[in-house]
Design goal:
9-stranded antiparallel sheet; 7-stranded antiparallel sheet
Length: 277
């Protein structure tokens, strides 16, 4: 059923608007009537999916010495994932009991590797758990110099060898390492619509990586066609490095009252099994 009043206005706080394509996007935080975390999300005007910059336009902008500002209202042209993209860092309003701090949204005009799977126009939506300055300082593409203890890996997820780094695991600029479900439909030759990535990084320098972001990746053509509400399970690790409320579902939904699309993490649950450092 289409939710015509999402998100609930009286329980939602908003960021300042950011320009994308011919529209805008804003991050939001919603709480339950009792004040518990309900969702973090981004509301994307449908017009934001029109007149988006091409990879060539983004590269030209950077080569002219005016790439923009990822913290600003128009984003920045950056080369990441072996491809030119438009990147935005947008803070979330008050995050209550969750560890989430800001949204890293990336428009990928030509997608990114692996070829034949994610090399189609799509948007990466990173729900980050570290401070923006920490993520901003991550440079890549570099080999990961840490291990990730098995209990910290989400169920069914694996680390991804990077061919350009002789098969080492990769740390990506402004993001960190990407952990994947090795058997989504698009890997077996199906169409890429939406998939979920978990991110990891060694945040303490102790040689052990930990989870740092949740990332729905969504094809542009899928966003353009979405109706109603689709909700997907977020696989969980056995242990978390810190206590807090973590999402168990992500959603992609039509918001017809705003002529927009919302991408959310929701159904938060407290992490009770944590590791000590």
């Amino acid at each position: 059923m289409i939710d015509r009043e999402f998100p609930p206005r009286k329980r939602t706080e908003w960021s300042e608007p950011i320009t994308l394509g011919n529209g805008e996007l804003r991050t939001f935080t919603t709480v339950t009537p009792s004040g518990d975390p309900a969702s973090h999300g981004v509301l994307l005007d449908r017009d934001a999916l029109t007149d988006l910059p091409s990879a060539a336009e983004l590269r030209t902008r950077a080569e002219r010495g005016d790439p923009g500002d990822k913290y600003g209202p128009n984003g920045a042209a950056v080369e990441i994932h072996h491809a030119w993209s438009q990147e935005f860092f947008v803070p979330f309003p008050e995050t209550a009991a969750t560890p989430f701090t800001f949204l890293g949204l990336t428009w990928n005009p030509e997608g990114h590797p692996p070829a034949g799977t994610y090399d189609v126009p799509h948007i990466d939506v990173h729900f980050h758990m570290l401070e923006a300055a920490t993520i901003d300082a991550i440079a890549g593409l570099d080999a990961a110099s840490y291990t990730i203890p098995e209990p910290r890996l989400p169920e069914g997820y694996v680390r991804v060898p990077e061919p350009s780094l002789d098969g080492d695991f990769a740390v990506v600029t402004d993001m960190g390492e990407h952990l994947i479900d090795p058997e989504p439909p698009e890997i077996a030759g199906g169409e890429f619509t939406t998939t979920l990535i978990w991110g990891a990084y060694d945040t303490t320098g102790d040689g052990r990586g930990e989870l740092t972001f949740v990332e729905p990746m969504i094809a542009k053509r899928h966003l353009e066609a979405v109706t109603g509400t689709d909700r997907y399970e977020i696989p969980q690790p056995t242990m978390y490095p810190a206590a807090g409320e973590y999402p168990t579902v992500y959603g992609v939904r039509d918001v017809p009252g705003d002529d927009a699309i919302a991408i959310t993490i929701e159904a938060f649950s407290p992490a009770r099994r944590t590791e000590s450092h």
